[in-house]
Rho GTPase-activating protein 26-like protein (Euroglyphus maynei), 266 residues
Amino acid sequence: MGLLPLEFTDGLTDSPFFRETLQSHERELDLTNTAIKHLIKDIKDLIAAARNLSRAQRTLSDTLNNFNFECIGNSQTDDEMVIANSFKDFARLLSTIEDERDRLLEKADEAFLEPIERFRRDQIGSAKEAKKKFEKETAKYCQNLERYLNLSVKKSETQLWEADANNSMEQQHFFKAMSEYVLKLQEVNERKKFEFVETVLSFMLGWLTFYHQGHEIATDFYSVKMELQMRLQRTRNNFNMTQEETKSLRKKMLDNQEKVSHVLLH
């Protein structure tokens, strides 16, 4: 069940119903404040984890880029050159992805965290300030009303008139503080539907853009992957053929050596 609306007319009578409804709005405000604090913490943790991951990815990229293949022989075949340079392609892939992640993380504080914290500080903070003012005026009005109701009828007409005027003034201060507080609670409740959610949407779209860029980078890498896989398969096939020939030559060598040794012994 949603919150009941706060009505100015109910506040004028300061009825138990108004106070109960007001308290439900205050509880919701406290819950929202706590939830935003948790959200800010989780976003900060996520950004910190993303930065740690980015550093690890760049370290891996550097290692791959500096990895050297030494091939047998004075010259390399085309396949060997492509395979030897493949780690540099992997390094460029990782580095390009991390460049995109850096662009996201560089604006994370200004674009995401600061607006969320500003909403909590300015909107919820101002509501809490309005609450303090309302509670202060409520206390003053109640104290003055109690004195007013306890006035003796023996007071002079001037004194009664002054007490009545003072009570009316305190009542107006109370009504003004009450209306400002109700208005602010309504404002925060409405603003979080668009101003706060817009910021969170922007945060989500930032991550989706990063993932989309990663997909684009992967698509561009597809041709490199296909060529490398073709050359790796050809190199594997050549290795298997050569391996069989090498094993056959080795067996013949060992057999001949055994025959020679046998002749020498006899």
Summary: The longest helix spans residues 157-265. The chain has a mean pLDDT of 87.
